[in-house]
């Protein structure tokens, strides 16, 4: 039995840091385990320009603990009014690593997102020409579409057309939750990849809805039925370079989660690697963990792999039921559970 595993330091290819005091307190959790992270731009107001992204990056860097090597990779929040020249300039200057497309009102802080995907085509054409990565929150917002079908519907209505119209555009289908998304990514060209969160590998929708409503298992896209979870586990552990780690860690205070209108988002950062490696262990795929966590992402983003390493050991880890951010309670992913792996450093 493998009791210890050392891999190149991983990166988190989808992450929410927020801003202000919360950001300052959550950055160390990610910087402890990851060398880089793709930082989502859904602040209020959203990070829509090079100038805003550069300033946000500086605020994040100021929150990285002394002696810790961590690089935030910034994204541009695409809107109906995105200035493609500014985006291209920001990418050329190394401020932007990618741009993020939220359909308007699909999720937390997405009201300024695109109201019509096709209207963004001129910007996508420019991104294809400049080789800028497009990260997509792939859910339709049409109220007539059942929340459990919104990802599949997005593939059928928009994603297939984007891939066909922009055959060279690098696209990351973010936080995929369905076998339909796995199938789409598998049949697409090498320029189409996907991130997978720990929660969608661990839970299906029962974890959210059985035995009383479980707000700490609620995130968007929502967890789907078991057959989808199984297909995500197969994809993540398959060794395919099209799938890589993206926690979608999305901190919301306990009070905002345990509410009559609870926020979507799971705070996965504190024990992210322990969560993922548990899945790879259960699937008998520990030898493929490094690919998913540390190699496929950099290859897709055309960035160097990290030279430093991290070690995880088989040992009992009691995840605290609750942590504190800005003096308030926040419940981490796996809060109150015991995991079988521990991050050593
Ligand atoms: C994210 C958030 O809270 O910012 N929430 C979530 O449930 N994943 C937004 C997102 O990525 O959809
Ligand atoms: Zn997210």
UniProtKB/TrEMBL annotation:
Coiled coil stretches, renumbered: none
Modified residues (N6-carboxylysine): 100
Binding site for substrate: 16-18, 42, 137, 220, 252, 264
Positions with a binding annotation for Zn(2+) 1: 14, 16, 100, 248
Record field: catalytic activity: (S)-dihydroorotate + H2O = N-carbamoyl-L-aspartate + H(+)
UniProt-recorded Gene Ontology molecular function terms: dihydroorotase activity
Domain Amidohydrolase-related: 12-303
Sorted UniProt keywords: Hydrolase, Metal-binding, Pyrimidine biosynthesis, Zinc
Pfam families: Amidohydro_1
Family listed: Belongs to the metallo-dependent hydrolases superfamily. DHOase family. Class II DHOase subfamily.
NCBIfam families: pyrC_dimer (TIGR00856)
Protein's name according to its UniProt entry: Dihydroorotase
């Amino acid at each position: 039995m493998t009791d210890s595993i050392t891999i190149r330091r991983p990166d988190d290819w989808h992450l929410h840091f927020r801003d202000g005091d919360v950001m300052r307190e959550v950055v160390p959790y990610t910087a402890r385990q990851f060398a880089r992270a793709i930082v989502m731009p859904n602040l209020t107001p959203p990070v829509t320009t090079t100038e805003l992204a550069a300033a946000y990056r500086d605020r994040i860097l100021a929150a990285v603990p002394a002696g810790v090597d961590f690089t935030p990779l910034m994204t541009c929040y695409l809107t109906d009014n995105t200035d493609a020249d500014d985006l291209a300039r920001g990418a050329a200057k190394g401020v932007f690593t990618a741009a993020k497309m939220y359909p308007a009102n699909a999720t937390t802080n997405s009201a300024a997102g695109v109201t019509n995907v096709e209207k963004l085509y001129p910007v996508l054409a420019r991104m294809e020409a400049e080789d800028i990565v497009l990260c997509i929150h792939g859910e339709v917002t049409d109220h007539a579409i059942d929340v459990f079908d919104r990802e599949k519907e997005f593939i059928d209505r928009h994603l297939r057309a984007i891939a066909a119209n922009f055959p060279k555009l690098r696209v990351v289908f973010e936080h995929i939750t369905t076998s339909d998304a796995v199938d789409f990514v598998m049949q697409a060209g090498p320029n189409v990849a996907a991130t997978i969160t720990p929660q969608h590998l661990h839970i299906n929708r029962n974890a959210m809805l059985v035995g009383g409503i479980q707000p700490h298992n609620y995130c968007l896209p929502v967890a789907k039925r078991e057959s989808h979870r199984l297909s995500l586990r197969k994809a993540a552990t398959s060794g395919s370079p099209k799938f890589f780690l993206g926690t979608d860690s999305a901190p919301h205070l306990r009070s905002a989660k345990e509410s009559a209108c609870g926020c979507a988002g799971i705070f996965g950062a504190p024990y992210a690697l322990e969560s993922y490696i548990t899945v790879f262990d259960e699937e008998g795929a520990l030898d493929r963990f490094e690919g998913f966590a540390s190699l496929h992402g950099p290859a897709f983003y055309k960035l160097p792999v990290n030279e430093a390493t991290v070690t995880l050991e088989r040992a009992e880890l009691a995840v605290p039921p609750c942590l504190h951010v800005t003096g308030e309670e926040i419940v981490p992913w796996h809060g109150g559970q015991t995991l079988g792996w521990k991050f050593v450093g």
